[in-house]
């Protein structure tokens, strides 16, 4: 890494159900193409359909590797020559199961990683009832940093981020569709995941209101000390910051809390 900066841009998208999925897909692809100075571009969770639009999940489901969103985002990443975390889509697998799947494309437009959301929100309704759970921790090596992938509700489960840390993650990328009524939790949890992992966290949310749920916006870029580097407002906007990946190892060396982890404690259950 050696001080080579990474320019990261989070595109906080307004998900308006008056706009068709196809129109929004084209609009977002154009926004990605405009980010030619970035190294890494990040989109929110389920920006095509809306994270709370459960009634539309089945109709808008698509293959993760060659569906219309994957094809459009692969082309946009290739045209802009950026690494693109394309947020997540409603994936329909060959067996007909639905997943909340995030996609990472290389600057050549190649699908470099896909992550199926492990923790589904809804308490037996919505996403939790309609989508299957992912089972795998996913990281990907970029030229300057190793990214760990998580999505929205995953933020509430720190054990997943410990596993990403152990898998080598230095930058945690978290697309989300987080509601405004829990904005305080969003800001707290994003910073907590950065502090405990001593990693950058790029947390990209949606704006607007869909299915009657006002979105929090307030995408965040947080450094390994838990300091907010950049924060968006509530509306649609890009959020850009230059990250120094060497700060991750510098932080872990200067404050070596991770070496004091105690693992393998006995199971407290009888």
Automatic annotation (TrEMBL):
Keyword Ligase: no
Species classification: Bacteria, Bacillati, Actinomycetota, Actinomycetes, Kitasatosporales
Stated family: Belongs to the carbon-nitrogen hydrolase superfamily. NIT1/NIT2 family.
InterPro entries reported for this sequence: C-N_Hydrolase, C-N_Hydrolase_sf, UPF0012_CS
GO molecular function terms attached to this record: hydrolase activity
CN hydrolase domain span: 6-245
SUPFAM superfamilies with a match to the protein in the record: Carbon-nitrogen hydrolase
Highest taxon, organism lineage: Bacteria
UniProt keyword terms in alphabetical order: Hydrolase
PROSITE patterns documented for this protein: CN_HYDROLASE, UPF0012
Species for this entry: Actinacidiphila alni
Protein's UniProt name: Predicted amidohydrolase
């Amino acid at each position: 890494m050696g001080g080579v900066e990474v320019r990261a841009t989070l595109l906080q998208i307004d998900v308006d159900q008056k706009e068709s999925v196809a129109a929004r897909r084209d609009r977002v692809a154009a926004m990605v193409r405009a980010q030619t100075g970035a190294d890494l571009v990040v989109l929110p969770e389920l920006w095509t359909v809306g994270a709370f639009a459960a009634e539309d999940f089945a109709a808008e489901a698509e293959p993760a590797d060659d569906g219309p969103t994957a094809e459009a985002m692969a082309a946009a990443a290739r045209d802009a020559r950026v690494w693109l975390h394309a947020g997540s889509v409603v994936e329909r697998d060959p067996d007909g199961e639905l997943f909340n799947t995030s996609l990472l494309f290389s600057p050549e437009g190649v699908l470099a990683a896909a992550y199926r959301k492990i923790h589904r929100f809804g308490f037996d309704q919505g996403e939790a009832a309609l989508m299957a759970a992912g089972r795998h921790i996913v990281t990907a090596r970029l030229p300057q940093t190793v990214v760990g992938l998580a999505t929205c509700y995953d933020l509430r489960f720190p054990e997943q981020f410990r596993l990403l840390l152990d898998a080598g993650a230095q930058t945690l990328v978290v697309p989300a569709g987080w509601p405004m009524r829990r904005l305080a939790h969003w800001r707290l949890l994003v910073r907590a995941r950065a502090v405990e992992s001593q990693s950058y966290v790029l947390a990209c949310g949606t704006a607007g209101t869909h299915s009657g749920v006002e979105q929090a916006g307030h995408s965040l870029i947080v450094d390994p000390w838990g300091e907010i580097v950049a924060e968006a407002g509530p509306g649609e906007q890009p959020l850009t910051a230059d990250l120094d990946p060497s700060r991750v190892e510098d932080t872990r060396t200067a404050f070596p809390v991770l070496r004091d982890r105690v693992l393998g404690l006995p199971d407290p259950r009888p």
